[in-house]
Specification:
Keywords: Signal. By secondary structure, this protein is mainly beta. The chain is built from no helices and 28 strands. It is globular and about 55 Å long.
Length: 370
């Protein structure tokens, strides 16, 4: 992407995007919303999602977790019961149920994936100061079995992702930590069902989000972690470190810094915008412009290729929303700024941002597509 300007200003002119999936914008202690572009109407449709939801939502994940062939939405709530959301065709609306009735956890992150290689997805919850959990659906019990993940550990985990980052065909669990030790971890499942901690960063990271994808075109996925200030603005500047976790003489794992500075990164996504086969990394910052970087193999470093003007980013996803093979950036913002969809035109090499309408001011902390 060498001809992309290192800085660009999002356009306020709406662009027809023909969104197919429904974008769920999850907020903290506010009504959530579903946004979908309508070709017929020529604009975004906005509807309430779980309008009576008054819990402290922190993260969402989408996947088939009860083996019925349809995706569910799993909501991670802080100091409230975590939930599963299913679409009820009889009433034409989404319905939420507590995953573990009566259980209250300080959950900050959630991921869905097949971590035991049986062809069925599990749910992994990252809990802040409590034991992390794996939930697996049991059809005969019509409910979820809960297994503690590394039961002897109680770290201040704020993020979790699932992916095969050592190229062995089996996924690992990547945990981001915000505590005094600030140890990002990679957990590998053994044949015994126990988990082996194969990497701890031992570096001053305050990880808030993790995304998995191949960022150096070596055919093996990496985990990109971004760090920020969990409590928000108003704190003194503190140097943060964004990192890449990757295999090093597999099965060993290494972690190295790709950025450091006084930024507050709240979101990260991975996608190939210019179609050259090398993914770019989008880092969403709360207190400064968000950044798009890419790996420079000759220098063995990540270079800045574009900036997204504007502050207030609180969440971010990179996904192809219109099926044209080019990913879009969905940016969630604090309630002082509108959420946005940012698209890239490969012919003009220009990024264009469209504001997403809202029924009310929202502080978008998580984004999911279904």
């Amino acid at each position: 992407m060498p001809s992309v300007s290192p800085s660009f200003t999002p356009s306020s002119t709406p662009t027809k995007t023909n969104l197919n999936p429904k974008i769920i914008l999850g907020t903290s202690n506010q009504a959530h919303e579903i946004v979908q572009y309508s070709d017929l109407l020529g604009h975004f449709r906005v509807e309430n999602f779980l309008s009576d939801h008054d819990r402290d939502l922190r993260d969402m994940a989408v996947g088939d977790v009860d083996n019925d062939g349809r995706p569910e939405i799993v909501i991670a709530n802080h100091n409230h019961a975590n939930q599963i959301v299913k679409y009820d065709e009889n009433i034409g609306d989404f319905v939420a149920q507590d995953l573990i009735p009566g259980e209250t956890m300080a959950t900050r992150g959630v991921a869905i994936g097949d971590i035991d290689n049986d062809g069925k997805n599990e749910i992994v919850f990252a809990n802040y100061g409590q034991v992390n959990q794996i939930l697996k659906y049991k059809k005969d019990a019509n409910g979820f079995e809960v297994t503690p993940l590394m039961p002897s550990e109680r770290k201040l985990n704020t993020a979790v992702a699932i992916g095969d980052i050592d190229g062995n065909g089996k996924v690992e669990i990547i945990l981001g930590d915000y505590g005094d030790t600030k140890d990002n971890q990679v957990l590998r499942r053994l044949d015994s069902g126990e988990y082996l901690d194969v990497h701890e960063s031992h570096n001053p990271f305050k990880t808030l989000k993790i995304s998995v994808g191949d960022v150096d075109a070596d055919g093996i996925d990496e985990a990109v972690t971004v760090a920020g200030i969990d409590a928000g603005v108003g704190e003194d500047c503190e140097v943060q470190y964004n990192t890449v976790i990757e295999p090093f003489n597999p099965p060993k794992i290494q972690e190295w810094e790709i950025e450091q500075g006084c930024f507050d990164s709240r979101g990260v996504g991975i996608g190939d915008f210019d179609g050259d086969g090398l993914n770019e990394v989008v880092i969403g910052n709360f207190n400064s412009h968000s950044r798009i970087i890419r790996y420079n193999k000759s220098k063995d470093q990540f270079d800045l290729v574009a900036q997204i003007q504007g502050i207030g980013t609180t969440s971010l996803e990179v996904v192809d929303t219109d099926g044209d093979g080019i990913p879009e950036i969905i940016v969630g913002k604090s309630d002082a700024y509108p959420d946005q969809i940012i698209s890239y035109d490969r012919a003009t090499k220009i990024f264009t941002a469209n504001d997403i309408p809202s029924l009310k001011d929202r502080d978008t902390v998580a984004i999911a597509l279904i």
